[in-house]
Write a structure and sequence with these properties.
Blueprint lengths: L2 H13 L4 H24 L13
Amino acid sequence: MTDHAEWTELRERRMAEPDAEEAYEAARIAFELRQTLRELRRRNGRVPRRRPTAGP
């Protein structure tokens, strides 16, 4: 089985669980809200600089 097929199967199993659709929708809305806020901040020149991450 390919990685894609494994992820597809996992997603199907998760989405079959009770309340999965509601949780997915809530996460989608939160993600879109954060993206909108970031874009508005970027337009106003108020996006904080990202901290450098430790390399390997």
